[in-house]
Write a structure and sequence with these properties.
With 244 residues, this protein is of the alpha/beta class. It is built from 8 helices and 14 strands. Strand 13 and strand 14 form a beta hairpin.
Length: 244
């Protein structure tokens, strides 16, 4: 599926000097994944390979990557759904879509799902590397890397949170839950919204999962003398309120 065109490619389309870029490769065809991974590693990139859409969604939420390369057809969650879900969560990592589907409509669907570029199989290594380099050279300043809401500051790259001068030690799920709330200050957020958007559960009856995590997050956010940031709305959900 991958055209063997490595000549001249070793001297072209290299990453920016002095920077190690981390790339998440999501491809279920092991032979293609091995070829792509080996070629990109030879060009100086750090590659992590995942062969399942569900696992890819989980790791994309938990860790920062400079770029994602996502095959369209995957076991578990398909590639376009993975992209749509990370975009809904506010993750702006550039995404290159790989697919054996090359019709114009297919490329349009990939871009509308939130992909930044679309490469049809079979492809040449040199073209893949050039597209990777082009996506990584996009201005970093257009990507939101820090959220500031009231007394909270969240660094999406370093995965750190501070309330004023106090650092907060959050688990990955707590980090994602807080990020979701910080992006919606003053808005009512229901338990169903959190289950679907933070946990990717469509329906989970009679569960206190959200309340347990909200409770843990509150204990880390608020210490004595600090106004609470997460308010409960009886029978409805929660509101993240910024102190006056």
């Amino acid at each position: 599926m991958v055209e063997q065109e490595r000549e001249a490619g070793s001297a072209a389309a290299r990453p920016v000097p002095g920077r190690k870029f981390n790339i998440l490769l999501v491809e279920d065809d092991q032979s293609i994944a091995d070829e792509v991974r080996d070629d990109l590693i030879s060009r100086g990139y750090v590659i992590e390979h995942i062969g399942d859409g569900t696992a890819a969604l989980r790791i994309a939420q938990a860790r920062h990557f400079d770029l994602m390369i996502v095959d369209r057809l995957l076991p578990g969650i398909d590639g376009l759904s993975v992209i749509e879900r990370i975009r809904a969560l506010g993750i702006r990592t550039p995404v290159l879509v790989l697919s054996a589907l090359s019709a114009v409509d297919d490329r349009v669907r990939g871009l509308k799902a939130g992909g930044d570029d679309y490469l049809s199989k079979p492809f040449a290594f040199l073209e893949l590397a050039a597209r990777v380099e082009a996506l990584l050279r996009r201005p970093i300043e257009v990507r939101e890397t820090v959220l500031r809401v009231g007394p909270l500051e969240m660094d999406l790259i370093d995965r750190t949170v501070r309330r004023g001068d106090r650092p907060l030690d959050l688990l990955p799920r707590e980090f994602k839950l807080l990020e979701y709330l910080m992006r919606r200050p003053g808005q009512l957020v229901t338990r169903d919204m959190l289950l679907e958007d933070v946990w990717q559960y469509r329906f989970l009856p009679q569960t206190n999962l959200v309340d347990v995590h909200i409770g843990r997050l509150r204990r880390k956010l608020d210490v004595a003398g600090e106004p609470p940031l997460i308010q409960s709305v009886r029978g409805a959900g929660f509101i993240f309120r910024v102190p006056d």
